[in-house]
Amino acid sequence: MNPRFRNVRRIGPVNVASYIDRGRNRHLAACTAPRCDFSAEYDSRAAAELAARTHRCSA
Ligand SMILES: [Zn+2]
Q1: From ligand 1's centre to the CA of 13, what distance in Å?
Q2: Are 5 and 19 in contact (CB under 8 A)?
Q3: Sorted alphabetically, which Pfam families does this protein's record hold (predicted)?
Q4: Burial of 32 by CB count in 10 Å (0-12 exposed, 13-18 middle, 19+ buried)?
Q5: 35-56 confidence digits (pLDDT tens)
Q6: pLDDT at res. 59
């Protein structure tokens, strides 16, 4: 099932999005740099945005 992303926002090279997974709010931070594998899920939007802001891109 494809999650429906809401509130997609770009912070530097990282996209932050919120979606609902099995009735629960989840938040995803994913780097868009081609050679960077960073992506992580969080329970709170603030945590996802903080991770995006502090991400040190390895690409
Ligand atoms: Zn990165």
Answers
A1: 6
A2: yes
A3: SpdB
A4: middle
A5: 999 999 999 999 999 999 999 9
A6: 72
Is the pLDDT at 14 greater than 80, yes or no?
yes
In the reported structure, the alpha carbon of residue 12 is separated from the centroid of ligand 1 by a whole-number distance in angstroms of 9
Tell me the two tokens of residue 1.
Answer: 């099932």
Amino acid 21 reads D
| 29 has pLDDT over 60 | yes
CB 51 within 8 A of CB 42: yes
Distance between Cα 24 and ligand 1 center (Å): 27
Unique residue bearing structure tokens 């999005």: 17
DSSP class of 37: -
Distance (angstroms) between ligand 1 centre and the Cα of 2 equals 23
